[in-house]
Records
---
Amino acid sequence: MSIEFVQGDITQQETEAIANAANSRLAGGGGVDGAIHRAGGPDMMKELKQKYQGCPTGSAVITGGGRLKAKYVIHAVGPVYSGKPKDRELLTSAYRKCLELCTEHKIGSIAFPSISTGVYGYPVEEAAPIAVKTVSDYLKTHSEIRLARFVLFDDKTFSTYRRAYGELEVNV
Ligand code: ADP
């Protein structure tokens, strides 16, 4: 299995799928969601509207990638940070559901943004270890997914995820 960390723009990734940090209305928005819809084109929103009536927090839905290099986009809904224990549960299940959809659709590679740590306010120091552990645990038992890549937009987020992965390796 392979987990990678790169600093960059998720819309440019050539993994089979990319994950989106969507909202529960699947209505499109700013941040990474806006960037993915702009780059993917209008078919993605059409497909979302046709197939789904929103998506609960902690879950995810799948569409085609439109004009993106990635064949699929997995629209995950992370929690708005509240500081309560439920945040961790919902963030874990958002990442997990993305990976389960990969297994179901025979997708061998996926790129993730840092879900919930932008407008949704999840402190990246808290979110990174949860994201990295959830993905790492899943990959250990699902060899069909050969690559998970975290694509982090800014320096601080990138270094925080790399550190979280380093600490995870020390602790296993
Ligand atoms: P949320 O609402 O889940 O917090 P945001 O889109 O506000 O989602 O932010 C999530 C993370 O995605 C932030 O770290 C933000 O800097 C980052 N981000 C924004 N645009 C991109 C992009 N094009 N590629 C990768 N990450 C991005």
---
Amino acid sequence: MSFAENTMAGKTALVTGGATGIGAAIVRLLGKLGARVAITSRKEENLKAAVQEFAEKDGIDVIYRVGDVRDADGIKAVIADIATELGGLDILVCNAAGNFICPTEELSSNGWRTVIDIDLNGTFNCCQAALPFLKKATRGGRIVAISTTHADSGWPTAAHAGAAKAGIQNLMKSLSAEWGKYGVRANWVSPGPIEGTEGVDRLIIAQGKAAEVLKRIPLGTFGQGEDIANAVVFLSSDMGAYVSGTELVVDGAARWGT
Ligand code: COA
């Protein structure tokens, strides 16, 4: 079951952090549905391997540029270069993120700053750099940020990432208000635990918490990358045209409280 195969035909998209995990699933679906897609991240070896896999396994041509979302000037040049090569930029998916488990009382100020810088400042840098191109999108530019349900609940032992994601959500609301006049929609998707991602492998499975976490998910399974990709496609397609400044939660009704 999927969207019609030409759902994203004629659209151009950049997925930051698109070489791996949820980002790669988003790239795959956008590409299969007809979008021309670019990815960026810090590690060229990951980008190269991903582009090769997208071509061989999925039959889609994806372009890449090395870039660090923390470097405002650098990422601005990367996004301009990508938009030139793709012939415009209709969709920006702010997916690049960094995270690690650390009790907050032990977290160094540099550790805090690093995650805020990648997740929150990096999202701001990309949105601002993409705006001139998104403004020109013929059917309205789209920004979709990948957040987390922990942005609302708090994220014990990942307070840096929880705070950054809460900031991203607020940023999307501000952008939806300020940039609606340019036809730009800004939304965010909040995934629960998604199987096969570094987040679940490292933060849940490696900590021996899989059974405990699954008990808190009424639908009884971890999500799949495609579940998040489907949400991103809806928000960035013409079908999501009147949706802006809001959240789409994709978490199997997970409950982290009682
Ligand atoms: N526990 C505590 N502090 C940590 C840490 C951990 N597991 N990992 C990094 N830090 C701290 C570092 O000690 C450093 O602070 P310090 O200078 O006070 O010692 C600070 O964070 C920056 O770390 P550094 O590794 O120099 O930064 P980086 O820019 O190279 O990488 C990350 C930052 C977040 C990308 C890195 O931690 C990482 O590779 N994480 C795993 C990959 C990832 O995040 N994937 C996304 C999954 S959702």
---
Amino acid sequence: MTIPKIIKPAFHVTGEKGWINDPNGLIFYKGKYHAFYQHYPFDTKWGPMHWGHVVSDDLTHWEYLPIALKPCDEFDSFGCFSGSAIEQDGKLYLMYTGVVENQGGETFRQNQCLAVSEDGITFKKLGIVIGEDILPSDYEPWNFRDPKVWKHDDWFWCAVGAKRRDGTGRIVLFKSKDLFNWSFVGDLFNKDSGGTIIECPDLNQEQGYLLYSEQFQPKSEGHQNVHTSYWAVGEMDYQNGNYKATAIGTMDYGFDLYAPQTFTGAPIVIGWLNMWDRNVPSAKYGFAGMLTVPRKVCVKDGRLYQTPVVATKDAIKKIVDKSLSDQVVKGVITITATELKQFNLKLRNNGENYTELSLIDGKWVFNRSRSGEQIVGVETDEDSLAGIRRMPWSNNHVTTLTIVMDEFSVEIFEDGKVLSSTIYPPEDANGLILNVKAQSCTYQKENV
Ligand code: FRU
């Protein structure tokens, strides 16, 4: 019997097997980076949510730990949904949404729960700490999830994704002195999300930004993905429990990014490198869904600025005179061009299949229509149907493009902006062809 070869990403987190979605509880705890994730280990489709768990010293090499949370108690029997982590008195606390089916099964209830660990590996559940009894009655208790906890002054603060009964998406804020007894503060963020819940809020008090995700947005607002994640920069007014945004932008211009979260204790963001409502071709290898490469983030010139974090080795540098060919499946490619005029790059190329990045009318144009196995989503706009995503080009005197490649993914960074997409090329598609017109250009390849 021949055992089919299983292909997996080399340095992007996936489940050991089964389904994963949002990153959860990201924290730098006792000298290690801990990442948890929404996980259904028994199928390559979404199911009752567990929290999978990995740790790393360098954010590139990850080690699996036992599943941290399972949906097996009366307050989370339908699922342990997304949440965050905080360290207190040396212990690691996870705050997550316990989902239960109503009696009669007609609707769900979502409450915020706590779990604690002394060793960062095994967790003891402590039950509901923010229940629907302290959520004002003008919010829907079945759309109340994804707690993000942080400490400021002498208080713990918790932002939770919510929806008013009038249909508007909100983020609501709670505060507590001890992580167990919470009180409602108010609406943290009032962006009318176009009739859908706001999910996975992530307020970063060190740098003053807020990340959030929205499902099923109105087409009129011109989003390329039906489900999109955003950053907002601005200021938190703790007096009134209000976040005032001065600018809002998209977290990622690609096909596949949702539910990004920041590590507690480090200015690093990881998101889900996938998207709701699309087929996931890696299911044939027994896993579906992965996490993005970690991104170092800061607020610069009034916007969120993101750069990849990868532990690399063996850098090779070449000067590019018009064109260059190479072979790359995994690694980090950096292309630096002065006075860039024209650009075309084919990745994972075997002649018939390739993934393309071009500079057209002042924008990066990414095309995965010929990448390999097709991915079909719910988007119906022309670009989506043609496999295209666009990202603004900085038009700087020196353009520095960093491309993180792994099995099944391409993440393109330029001037703090990102375009991330999954791709499923055939195994023999490993060529790279660069054509460029610039005053000068260098190409660098680093292995992982
Ligand atoms: C976001 C989300 C969260 C929820 C989780 C369930 O992708 O819908 O709001 O907690 O996924 O898996």
